[in-house]
Amino acid sequence: MADVTHPELTKPVFEHHPDGFGISNPRPRLSWKFLASAEPTRGWTQAAYEVEILRHGDQEAQTFLVDSEESVLVPWPAAALRSRQQASVRVRCWGQSPDEHGTVRRNPEPTSWSPVASLEVALLEQSDWTASMITSSRRLGPEAPLQPLRFRRQFEIPSSVVTSSARARLYITALGVFEAFLNGERLGDECMAPGWTSYNHRLTYRCLDVTPHLRHHGNNVIAVEVAEGWYATKLGFNGGTRFLYGGKDIAVMAQLEITSGARSWTLTTDDNWACAVSAIQSSELYDGEVYDAREDHSLWTTAAQDADKMGTRWLRVKTLPQVPGRKLLTTSSPPVRVIESRQVQAIHKTPAGKTIVDFGQNLAGKVVVKSVTLAAGERLVLRHAEVLEHGELCTRPLKDAKCEDVIIGSGEEICNWTPKFTFHGFRYVQVDGWPGSEDELRSALSASVMHSDMQRRGYFSCSNEWVNKLHTNVVWSMRGNFLSVPTDCPQRDERLGWTGDIQIFCPTASYLYDTVGFLENWLEDLSSEQLEQGNNGVPPFVSPEVPLLTWPRRKPQAVWHDVTVLTPWDLHRFSSDKVLLERQFQSMRAWLEQGVDRGEDGLWNFYLWQLGDWLDPNAPPQNPALALTDKVLVADAYLVHTTEVFAQVCALLGKAELATKYRAEASTLKRLFQDKYLTPSGNIMSNTQTAIALALQFGLYRGPAQRRTASRALSKLVRTAFFHVSTGFAGTPAVLPALAGPARQPQLAYRMLLEKACPSWLYPVTMGATTTWERWDSMLPDGSVNPGRMTSFNHYALGAAADWLHGCVGGLAPLGAGWRVALVRPVPGGNLTHAEARFDGPYGLLRCAWRVTASPAAASSAAAGEAARFEMELEVPPNSSAKVILPCDWITDPGDEAEEAFTLVGSGVHHFACDFVAGEWPPKALPPPNMPYSPEMDMVAE
Ligand code: BGC
Q1: Which ligand 1 atom sits closest to the C-alpha of 501?
Q2: How far is the CA of 549 from the centre of ligand 1 (A)?
Q3: In this structure, which topology does domain 336-452 adopt according to CATH?
Q4: What pLDDT shows up at residue 858?
Q5: pLDDT of residue 497 exceeding 50
Q6: CB of 501 sitting under 6 A from ligand 1
Q7: 3-state DSSP call for residue 290?
Q8: 488 lines ligand 1 (CB under 6 A)
Q9: Which residue numbers delimit the Bacterial alpha-L-rhamnosidase N-terminal domain (predicted)?
Q10: Homologous superfamily assigned to 129-329
Q11: Ligand 1 within 6 A of 498 CB?
């Protein structure tokens, strides 16, 4: 056993919290992972772990030794933590690995200790809060939009808590979005704090360490600026609705606590604070921000002696009553931050003589102006848009959102200006009123990319640069739409938490970034809103709920509302978090038991209006629901799948009776689906890419013969469509996996992937897209923008195909919950000669890199297409394993029900090689008889 190399452990994390500071859980579960060492030991698994916990203030640490293989979300071993309590935690493990004879032996030596992780508990009880929500005592500024307010309070710290070990915490939240300052310094770097939740159910607060900003002697000033944010701004299309949560006042609630040993002192928001209007005249999510430099007083955040320099009109504040039932809590959802800054790529003069700055990337965020001097009253206007049309800024797709920021000059230099309380979805900015030269403009402007600061963890690349660009675009559309809540788009008058969009994109997103903290936060709102009395288990279309004028409220919808079951399930697949499943359980069950509007047979109500395969490219631009595939068929296919998943959830959570009930219900529904939609030989009622792909993916065919029919029918549809996509939201995530998986036709999947003409995944890439689009043809081939009313250039939904890139092309998918066991089944094909997928998951880095070369040895056995040599390097992190299926072991008959041959491997670096025959490339289209076959039909992205 002498040569075992132990893996190194990472710093433990608490629940899904980004840093453990300000957690709302008194018994946070712990997870650690393993760092790849230069020579990772093969087959290393954990046999036991030891957790050391030092509560601050205690003399001695406690240790807990646990015989367990678990390293993800293990229970908190000590007594529950109290509000404000701090602790340091580290972990070490004992491992076991096979010796030279293959016998697994436990190593007597533990690993080294992990780095120490610190945690601090937030305020666990509502009674820990003594602060009041405060707002101005009388209306300042217009009725709407509300003008941002400034709040301030001057104070001295009592000498009893002035010690060198004093620690200061600010617990703060707002009705609106805020920035806080202590003695002139900005606290933290969060944008749009505290984010968007369903405020009448849950209001999140922040916990900030403000110790370094305090002045122990003399005057301190705490100052907070608050704007309407999601709380009061107008939200939703067709004019939107203001004051969604009832309140017409923006407000702040803050509690500053200074602790020194056993002594503490607290300053809270109360009627001793003062309030004034901000220099920001208005700041709205859709319309943008107007800043008047003449009204600014830089000293308002500091302990100015001279009242004039901080503005004179400071008023009293009043306190607002508590909203009954609203919970105050912290969240594991990471804060929104400026993640990246991008420079100007080009400046265009338009035919109309306008100046347009191009940042080269469609993004969500805001512009920074490094320096500008405008005469008093002069306006600099920044108008944002995603695309140009006929050389001009194209604002039609923004619908009723103005997306305009304005700076009004004071005659003095304005430095590092950026809007504080809004964001836009843009690549281009039209600049009106720039006082300097083009060169000065180029160096003065930059774009800040904003999103929730989740941990990036999944990567993909391959030999085809078109596909790589597609993948990069998918990542950018995720970044553009994970801003506090998962949105449909970041630019027009929506930016809402559309349930269907995240339902289909969650697996892709969860590979790319660690989404669990972010999405569990969102799911809690979804279920709170769904389970409100009177909703009969039906969630809103968008959560947090926003009334959609001209839309029905709470109409049960397949695909969209199946998010209640499928998204927690996906998060469980990525994290193995059963507590999350338990928390969402009532929501899942309410959806299936009350929400789904069923006909007498238990399938969906036949007459119900459904969005169905929304945005099928065959639907007319003005009616995206008019898809080729029958909508109820889509809904019913999903219902069988959702019921099956729910049965699995019941089983996992130990609810055996319910599991049996739902397993039986799923098989009844499946039979009903088969009777309703399938002919005995396996033809499906809607003969479309979406219908067949869903039925294949959800296992709805009756047996081998029907699956063969389905595979043939799908092949014919794809070939007669010249490999164009003909799926909308429902079919898009399914069609490539169905072709490469149950239909056993991976080359057809590649052929579709590599098609460049519209509609296809690569068409937007040929048009210079830098994000994924809402429509397959958001921009038409002639460069004009789709005439449909909704046309975004930053929607992640159709990018859900990247899940296939990760799982099939790259070859990495979760098999056991939380990636304890990975399925490694790479599917080489098309014109790709290599691909690599890397996933830094719950156990550490999993990496699969493959390469294909011509194989003279295998050539003689090639029946169709060229034989190839496949070589793969696979790295599996400690304490996990992988089930590996090589291309030579693929089953090629869609009717064959045998299991493919596989190898199970443990941690370490493994090499595999085999000969294989990918099949005909490129596969042939099926043109109509009056169209002779031409070489263009075989043209793919090279
Ligand atoms: C949104 C979507 C959404 C759809 C449903 C659109 O306006 O942008 O992505 O899922 O409506 O109707």
Answers
A1: 10
A2: 13
A3: Jelly Rolls (2.60.120)
A4: 46
A5: yes
A6: yes
A7: strand
A8: yes
A9: 166-340
A10: Galactose-binding domain-like (2.60.120.260)
A11: yes
